[in-house]
Write a structure and sequence with these properties.
The chain is of the alpha+beta class. Helices cover 55% and strands 17% of the residues. It has two domains: 97 residues, no CATH class; 69 residues, Beta Barrel (OB fold (Dihydrolipoamide Acetyltransferase, E2P)). 16% of the residues are buried.
Length: 186
């Protein structure tokens, strides 16, 4: 008889061990999933999923209903945890390292484009020959410009007729009339 009693205790101990180890592995699996969010190694994801599967299997060995409830809980918890992980992802160090540079260059580009748009209708003098591209001086500002297909010699007056993107389109004109406020009679 003592032999059968020892076997019963051994079986109870094994079942308790399955319950404890299963719960422990599920906890470790969930923790590894959260750590994988920060580190994003992929290896931790595989270890986490393996730990979850083995943990649920051990709980099924302990009791079918405990295994079913745990599996159902994980099936509800994991998508919710995934949603939280997706929301938190942009704030992780790895996500910040993989982001494109900030939008400051776009802001600089927009500023330059606005400045070029302000040149529409203004007159300038060619600093280099425009064949059809070259350099034009607009009131002390050197601007790469493009003609509408014609050649223009250096030192000629041009007028900005359009700005397309970051390209200033100019057309040759006769010397513009200048109006000097200091010599004007009111």
């Amino acid at each position: 008889m003592p032999f059968h009693g020892d076997a019963g205790r051994h079986e109870d101990t094994q079942m308790d061990m399955d319950l404890t180890m299963g719960a422990f592995l599920i906890g470790i699996g969930l923790l590894l999933l959260v750590i994988d969010l920060v580190i994003a190694s992929g290896v931790l994801l595989v270890l986490a999923l393996t730990s979850l599967v083995v943990g649920v299997t051990l709980l099924f060995r302990y009791d079918t209903w405990v295994g079913m409830y745990t599996l159902l809980g994980l099936l509800l918890l994991l998508p919710a945890l995934g949603g939280v992980m997706v929301k938190l992802w942009p704030y992780t160090p790895l996500a910040r390292m993989t982001q494109l540079p900030s939008e400051e260059p776009e802001t600089d580009t927009l500023l330059v484009n606005r400045e070029l748009q302000a040149l529409k209708g203004q007159h300038g003098k060619t600093l280099t020959a425009l064949r059809p591209a070259g350099m034009v001086d607009f009131e002390g500002r050197r601007v790469d410009s493009l003609t509408e297909g014609m050649m223009v010699e250096a030192g000629r007056w041009v007028r900005c007729v359009d700005v397309r993107g970051n390209t200033v389109i100019v057309r040759p004109v006769d010397r513009p009339e200048t109006f000097d406020l200091e010599t004007a009679a009111f």
